[in-house]
Amino acid sequence: MKLLAVVLVAAAWAGFGSALDNGLALTPPMGWLAWERFRCNTDCVNDSYNCISQNLFMQMAELMADEGYLNAGYDMISLDDCWLAHERDQQGRLQPDPNRFPSGIPALANFVHSKGLKFGIYEDLGTKTCAGYPGVLNHLETDANTFAEWGVDYIKLDGCYSSHEQMDEGYPEFGMHLNNTKRPIVYSCSWPAYQNDPNYTAIIKTCNLWRNFNDIADSWTSVTTIIDHYGDNQDALAPLAGPGHWNDPDMLIIGNFGLSYDQAKTQMAIWSILAAPLIMSVDLRDIRPEFKFILQNHRVIAIDQDPLGIQGRRLKKSGSIEFWLRPVTPVDNDNHSYAVAILNRGDSTPTRVSFTLKELGMTSAKGYWVEDLFEEVVGISLMPSDPLTVSVNPSGVVMLKCSLLK
Ligand SMILES: *[C@@H]1O[C@H](CO)[C@@H](O)[C@H](O)[C@H]1NC(C)=O
Ligand SMILES: *[C@@H]1O[C@H](CO)[C@@H](O)[C@H](O)[C@H]1NC(C)=O
Ligand SMILES: *[C@@H]1O[C@H](CO)[C@@H](O)[C@H](O)[C@H]1NC(C)=O
Ligand SMILES: *[C@@H]1O[C@H](CO)[C@@H](O)[C@H](O)[C@H]1NC(C)=O
User: Fold this and answer.
1) Is the pTM for the entire model greater than 0.85?
2) Ligand with minimal distance to 44 CA
3) What would the pLDDT profile of 164-214 be if each residue is shown by its tens digit?
4) Which of 47, 121, 167, 376 makes a 20 to 30 Å CA pair with 155?
5) Are residues 366 and 246 part of one domain?
6) Which residues contact 91 (CB under 8 A, 6 or more apart)?
7) Distance 180 CA to ligand 2 centre (A)
């Protein structure tokens, strides 16, 4: 068998100069964001249960704390678009829609903090948010100060209604104002998602995470389009990621309507290989237990949150099978342990896949302890040349951790 050259070197950070150093997001952020599941439903008259309102966020925050999500690492809940009133107040400050957020944002932030969670907010660098509410352009300092005073811990700053030049100036300027507030605030940018040739040197200096690509939708097609984008562009994208600065392939849609059980595992696995932020967007009030179990899989989460912060890559495709690998701890001198996701892009039957660890670039003479991260089965000890066979369901994944033996 052909021994594949392995390109999984620890991403050398040197080429990109300095990264944002606010001490935050040293592992990919984890939390809950309203957008993909609840969108811009502002109809609290006819649909009060699902509309964007303080009640929705309070319910989700309680469930995150009570149902194990916070313990699993999902420690942030964030507003997305459509929380704002259409006008600023008399002092020119942003204000929430008074009917849907009658207690105001500081009260909501306090409630979220009382549950042990961090509080996130959404705005847009342009004249308007994507849904047409007031944007921050021409109010950057005022709005950064307002968010800090309100107790915001995380901001997603979108890029609708702003030019490329306004983004190139505005994202760093807003970041400077955030820094000047002295409040630690994770800065999530949408800057590169709106540009063909983004200046990642500037983006890494400015943002803790950034959306590179299309918004996710509630479908397997959307998930695979995103997976392909990160695989096809991995030489450009993977080296950008590291502690404090992450590529963001967008929210987890696990538990909604568009993914099967196997497809949900695939999203969780590939997002973790990619060192992606794990931001759920699902109704935690009625999520089915098997999806909750996937979202709270502590062994997969540990891969996502691996302290080395190296973004993994698609190593090879053969037929309908893709191998995705990520170097993780424990490390022994020059040798890494690896997370491996074997993905079946086919649509017929479960497929048997045979390989050796050596073919994937794992050559340590001391061997590896190999565990299946989705199945509760005992691990096995394997030498690099030992054969291994797994069965991968259509649109499903087998995820392994191969830990160096000492
Ligand atoms: C509630 O539904 C009615 C009938 O569809 C509609 O006319 C009205 O605009 C809705 N209310 C709000 C606040 O959207
Ligand atoms: C502000 O920037 C400095 C210099 O990078 C950094 O040390 C500090 O942690 C930042 N403070 C906040 C609150 O972001
Ligand atoms: C990209 O950003 C860096 C850092 O802000 C800057 O020095 C450089 O001139 C920018 N490159 C381009 C092509 O604009
Ligand atoms: C790392 O792997 C190489 C084989 O590629 C082996 O020669 C070397 O001894 C290993 N180092 C350690 C510390 O295990």
Assistant:
1) yes
2) 1
3) 999 999 999 999 999 999 999 999 999 999 999 999 999 999 999 999 999
4) 47
5) no
6) none
7) 8
